[in-house]
Specification:
The chain is an alpha/beta fold. The protein folds into two domains: 172 residues, Spore Coat Polysaccharide Biosynthesis Protein SpsA, Chain A; 73 residues, no CATH class. Helix content is 30%, strand content 27%. Strands 1, 2, 3, 4, 5, 6, 7 and 8 form an eight-stranded mixed beta sheet that branches. A five-stranded mixed beta sheet has the order 11-10-9-12-13. It starts with 5 loop residues before the first strand and ends in an 8-residue tail after the last helix.
């Protein structure tokens, strides 16, 4: 009897390193890889299912078994190989939820997204509207409650140029290289006070196979100028409107509390130094960001 195969249809957009690691990781586990290069095809991610491309591609593959499974995934959607036997469906198709991993396989955002899907060759032959149904399924947010949680979505396991392109093509997000670098630094060197809220240690479930080397940046200084109308942070001005009553203490407590929120936009780390020039009091001081955080009342601290 012919063995049923698992064929991975990989949605790819110029991420050669991650693709090579993926294929190496699944060697001997996935029977066949078929790369769908959406950049070369000149179609968007959303158009892949809506067009006839996937259907025509599958029908061109010789010697398929009715029960062969097709796993359609982005290159960054990874299911641990020891769980790959669960990638199957007894219906027309099944969509999986994936936990988001950022930058390292033991740094996990506490959120999930709808990710890859699986369908059989027989469902492709039997159901003429299969890909329309899959495409529509992804547009319904509540379906995330129906899906099985299996595997991870790797965000930040590409170099920054590839990551910027990836986020734009697959998620419609636009980030500059510097913004991504700042975010990556912040995730790797996340403040201890925020770590339990943002990250969850999952003990390197993927064995570090997909990680890329990265060193957090050294501490640096941030110049802060406090004026009556607002504050400057490294030459960027933020206007503030002070209330008549200050629930958290004095007017200066309010200003500094607002400053904490603004500093988050600059990805300040605990060991960084704030050089604060307070023009309203004609004072200049320098202190570590972690000391500044604990020196005033704040919703953050």
């Amino acid at each position: 009897m012919k063995k049923n195969n698992l064929i991975n249809l990989i949605l790819y957009n110029n991420e050669p390193e991650l693709l090579e690691k993926r294929m190496s990781y699944y060697e001997g586990v996935v029977d066949e890889f078929i790369i769908i290069d959406i950049k070369t095809l000149g179609i968007s991610y959303d158009e892949v299912l809506k067009s006839n491309y996937v259907k025509d591609l599958i029908k061109s593959i010789p010697n398929l078994n009715f029960d062969d499974m097709f796993w359609l995934s982005k290159v960054n959607e990874i299911i641990p190989k020891e769980l790959i036997h669960e990638v199957k469906t007894y219906g027309d198709f099944e969509v999986y939820n994936h936990t988001i991993l950022n930058w390292s396989d033991n740094l996990s955002l506490n959120r999930i997204i709808m990710g890859s899907c699986v369908f059989s060759y027989s469902s492709v032959l039997r159901n003429k509207k299969l890909f329309d149904e899959i495409s529509f399924y992804y547009t319904q947010p509540y379906n995330i409650t129906r899906n099985k949680l299996l595997g991870y979505s790797l965000i930040g396991f590409q170099n920054l140029n590839e990551l910027s392109d990836f986020l734009n093509v697959f998620y419609g997000l636009n980030f500059t290289i510097q913004e991504l670098l700042d975010f990556k630094i912040n995730m790797i060197s996340v403040d201890p006070i925020n770590k339990p809220l943002v990250l969850k240690d999952i003990d390197c479930k993927l064995g570090g196979h997909f990680n890329i080397n990265f060193e957090p940046r050294p501490p640096k200084n941030f110049d802060v100028i406090i004026e009556e109308e607002g504050v400057w942070i490294d030459s960027k001005f933020y206007k503030h409107d002070c209330p008549k009553n200050y629930v958290l203490g004095t007017k200066m407590d309010y200003i500094k509390n607002e400053l904490l929120f603004l500093l988050q936009n600059h990805f300040v780390l605990d060991d960084d130094t704030l050089v604060i020039k307070n023009k309203t009091e004609d004072k200049t001081s320098a202190l570590k960001y972690i000391d500044f955080k604990y020196s005033i009342p704040s919703e953050i601290t």
